Amino acid sequence: MRNPRNDTLGSPKTESGASPQTGSERRCVLTGETSSRDDLVRLAISPEHDDGSCDVLPDALAKAPGRGAWIGVSRSELADAVESGRLKGALSRAFKTGALNIPDDLPCRVQDALEKALLDRLGLEMRSGRLILGSDRIANEARMGAVAALYHANDAKEDGCRKLDQAWRVGLDEEGSGKHGERLPLDREALSVALGRENVVHLALADTRSAQRIAIPLGRLQTFLGAAPAAVDT
């Protein structure tokens, strides 16, 4: 790899890894706009091939070694940047090399990586006992005020969503507020396969910290798909 240090392009860093001006903020190499790193997607480069070139790959968890570049654009905007060569120009300047292989299907790879990061996080929350599955169990927990966050698969039926939303509002003593669970950018099949359960349509989390951990990969995926991330209570 050309740059062995785990540096981030766009913002100078202190030895602790935080930018002295912006803390955890990063700059999108395509738009020049600065945002929280939790809202952006990191791109990393592979080790060098024999010809000296490197592959550009998505780093959904922002943990890959080496230098990275950050993007804060939607899938369609990234596809346009790949097709026009604008992404290669921006990354060539950022990585200070033109020997970059950018796959034509990079937007698809980024989406797949972001979906996997979200599903993996949900799996971790399930194994820790904080993920609640099953409509009846969610409804019971929600009415007792024991649900911090509520989610629905994107192909969930409206009637089932409304019933759980209502139970959630009752438990939170927020009837009439219109508060409702969040539609995930994933269908029941993807959720069921990832969690190893049948027909996962609705999910809930028992505590706010779990919701905050889910909010990062979910927000990145929503931004990339062109949907505004939902706010998370603190």
Summarize the structure.
The chain has 234 residues and is α+β, with helices and mostly antiparallel strands. Helix content is 38%, strand content 15%. It has a four-stranded mixed β-sheet.
How would you describe this protein?
The chain is an alpha+beta fold and 234 residues long. Helices cover 38% and strands 15% of the residues. The chain contains seven helices and ten strands. The protein has a four-stranded mixed β-sheet. Strands 7-10-8-9 form a four-stranded mixed β-sheet, sandwiched between helices. Strands 1-2 form a two-stranded antiparallel sheet. A hairpin with an 8-residue loop joins strand 3 and strand 4 (54-59). Helix 1 (75-84) packs antiparallel against helix 3, helix 3 (106-127) packs antiparallel against helix 7 (208-224) and helix 4 (135-143) packs parallel to helix 5 (158-171). It is elongated. It starts with 24 loop residues before the first strand and ends in a 10-residue tail after the last helix. The relative contact order is 0.13. The model is unreliable at 1-23 (pLDDT under 50).
What assembly state would you assign to the polypeptide chains in this entry?
A: single chain
Structural class, by secondary structure, is alpha+beta
**Main sheet makeup:** 4 strands, mixed
Number of H- or I-type helical stretches: 7
Task: Please state the overall shape, judged from the principal axes of the Cα atoms.
Answer: elongated
Mean pLDDT: 88
Strand order of the largest sheet: 5-3-4-6
Report the sheet-strand fraction: 15-25%
- Compressed to H and E, one letter per element, the order equals EEEEEHHEHEHEHEHEH
Please estimate the helix content: 25-40%
The termini sit apart by: 40 Å
Task: Work out the number of β strands.
Answer: 10
